[in-house]
Specification:
By secondary structure, this protein is of the alpha+beta class. The chain has one domain: Ribosomal protein L5 (50s Ribosomal Protein L5, Chain: A). Helix content is 32%, strand content 18%. The chain has a 5-stranded antiparallel β-sheet with strand order 2-3-1-5-4. The N terminus is likely disordered.
Length: 188
């Protein structure tokens, strides 16, 4: 299911050869080594239902592995929350961190294939920046991802995709993502 991975994507090569210089010019950065770049992409999902449905973690792990090409790790509760009947150490979600070639391949496929599949898609939100170089995008349904076989899912679940960059602020992060092809909503 999960294979070894060596190749660098077309998006990475394009960024290194052309887009990096364009970004440096747009941001007014003279040192090419100071140009912001992607650091990692984290895909995660919360599975509160895992407390009652033990198969939820297994089913979603299979789906995230198909999307990312890596086996996700299980995340656990850090403290007890009695109103949710949650104990410290209970499994509550899954996450996977993509770097290097897999990261660029995932982002390229996400921009070109997944985003156009979202119903009534008019661009990603301009409000999902943290101001420190991260951009987080939530998906309400995992079925928009092309690798997930609709006939094999047990329940529609959401995902969160966090793109971590070396940018210093929201402006640099947005310019980097725009130059990589992320379609943002038009501001009026």
């Amino acid at each position: 299911m999960v294979q070894s991975y060596n190749s660098m994507s077309d998006l990475y090569n394009q960024f290194q050869q052309k887009l990096k210089k364009d970004l440096a010019r747009q941001l007014g950065i003279s040192n090419i080594m100071a140009v912001p770049k992607l650091e990692k992409i984290v895909i995660n999902t919360g599975l509160g239902e895992a407390l009652t449905n033990k198969k939820a973690i297994e089913n979603m792990a299979t789906q995230i592995a198909a999307v990312s090409g890596q086996k996700p790790i299980v995340t656990y509760a850090k403290k007890d929350i009695s109103s949710f009947k949650l104990r410290k150490g209970d499994p509550v979600g899954l996450k996977v961190t993509l770097r290097r070639g897999r990261m660029y391949d995932f982002l390229d496929k996400f921009i070109k294939v997944t985003l156009p599949r979202i119903r009534d898609f008019r661009g990603v939100s301009n409000n999902s920046f943290d101001g420190k170089g991260c951009f987080t995008l939530g998906l309400h349904e995992q079925i928009v991802l092309p690798e997930i076989d609709y006939s094999k899912i047990d329940k529609i679940r959401g995902l969160e995709i966090t793109i971590v960059t070396t940018a210093k602020d929201k402006t640099q992060t947005k310019k980097l993502l725009e130059i990589l092809g992320v379609p943002f909503k038009k501001e009026h």
